[in-house]
Amino acid sequence: MIIDNHQYKPLQFFEYDRVTFKGKWSDPKFNKTHFEAFEQYYIANPDTSFFELIPNGVRFKQYVGVVQIGKTTIEVLPKAGRHSEKDVWQGVLLDMLKACHLLTARNTGTAQLRLKSNSLLHLYFELFLNEVELLIKRGLIKKYRRENAQAKSLRGPIQFAKQIANNTIHKERFYINDSLYDKDHHIHQILNETIRVISHFTDEAVVRDKLNRVKALFPETKSLKVVSSDFKKIPLSRKHIPYEKALLISELILLNYRPDIKSGSRDLIALMFDMNKLWEEYILQSLRREGSDRFTIRGQKQKVFWNNSKVIKPDIVIETKDKVNTYIVDTKWKVVNDGKPGDDDLKQMYAYNYRWNCNHSMLLYPSTTDQTKVKGQYFKAEDGKSHSCELAFAQVLDGKTLNKNIAKEILHSFENSKESIENVP
To answer: Which Pfam families did the record assign (predicted)?
Structure first.
């Protein structure tokens, strides 16, 4: 039975929103079963970082993405400033994930349209199935494996204990440890478990159609209870390169799936991304695309600053190709209303400037309004060298889409800062 997509349109909230099944923040589509699923997840994972329990509900944190409980999908969207159109921020999230290579849609236009009536989770399901279809067309790899089995000919080491227990009467049979060369191996077992989870969670028409095609063509394998170490066991080799994208999505799905053993109605899967890290990665990838011809741009490069044990590491280090000038960017995904940097942030940026011999650093915050940059000079050190820090506000939106010129504006600001620093008396 194919179910209309629109009746499963996701519930949408912003980061830090609250939702309850009764009381002040109640939502008629969020019920007690949903709350109990979150509660069960929290009990199993008390250090969970993407939500916290409140009376009769949950409060989301700085994580964005999608949670599905049974047939109910909940999307948690980013937000910076007062612009509150959820479709706009859904598009921003999708574009950021693509820019950071966390979403590898082959047809991004189609992906954008598909999200209008479906969830990010279903998009990941569809991307996984697309990758598996490509693997099937290319040809699935075979591997050798060992298996204990009954055979009518002696073609492997005989298992004497099993032979005595099973074949005392049937002398024509042999219980052996056989060597098989087939498609029932570790990688395909992981992919089959992902197919099983997708089958459990989706009734969306396009995904279900792809799923049925894949299930009909994919080989049967033994079941596998997948844990994180299963992905680490897969060696990096030329044969495994075509499987890389499918396995990455498998890891994301399987390691974030929490089945409800009792009834299945509270099965929960969560694909959540730390918005602080996503913002940092988006800025880093944007800067690399925009300025790699003029700058060397690195992320999270650390240096020791105390006793050879304590380190500091700015989010992004930008160095001119001639190695004459260095700039630092530290990203913060939070709204600053008073336009003033905190003392701790300024001290941190001063340490970055000093340790990296940096001319100019930037604290970069998101904004959806025209906020004025705040630029200040640090007190000159004993060597007489001037350096500065700028509080900058990146316009996240260009109209109703993600602003693709943020990197250009950052680099332009740094190039201008060189002249202003040189003119400081």
So the answer is: McrBC (PF10117)
Question: What pLDDT digit, counting tens, does each position of 134-160 carry?
Answer: 999 999 999 887 777 777 776 767 776
Give per-residue pLDDT as tens, 281-303.
999 999 999 999 999 999 987 66
Same domain, 59 and 123: yes
Per the structure, the complete domain to which residue 298 belongs is given by 292-422
Q: Which residue type does 81 have?
A: G
Give the integer Cα–Cα distance in Å for 91 and 83: 13
Residues 207 and 299 occupy one common structural domain: no
For residue 185, give the DSSP letter: S
Query: Taking Cα atoms as reference points, which of 45, 397, 103 lies closest to residue 245?
Result: 103
pLDDT value, residue 17: 96
Work out the number of other CB atoms within 10 angstroms of the CB of residue 244. Answer: 11
Residue with tokens 């792809």: 210
Helix (H) or strand (E) holding 181: strand 174-182
Assigned domain for 287 exists:
no
Q: Rounded distance, CA 114 to CA 101, Å?
A: 19
Instruction: Mark which of 275, 306, 336 sits at the end of a domain.
Output: 275
Asked if 23 and 170 sit in the same domain, the reply is no
- For 23, residues 6+ apart whose C-beta sits below 8 A from its C-beta are 55, 56, 57
Burial 144-161 (b: 16+ CB within 10 A, else e): eeeeeeeeeeeebeebee
**Which pLDDT score, from 0 to 100, does residue 108 have?**
40
Query: 212 and 159, same structural domain?
Result: no
Do 134 and 147 belong together in one domain? no
Chain position carrying tokens 């969830």: 119
Is residue 241, in this structure, part of any structural domain at all?
yes
pTM: 0.80
- Residues 185/143, Cβ–Cβ less than 8 Å: yes
- Residue closest to 65 by CA, chosen among 47, 77, 51, 53: 77
Cβ–Cβ contacts within 10 Å for residue 396, how many? Answer: 25
pLDDT score of 271 more than 60 = yes
The answer to whether residue 283 sits within a structural domain is no
Among 198-202, 245-249, 310-314, which stretch is predicted with the lowest mean pLDDT?
310-314
| Model confidence at 95: pLDDT above 70 | yes
β-pairing, 295-299 with 316-320? antiparallel
DSSP output for 381-405: -TT----EEEEEEEE-EETTEE-TT
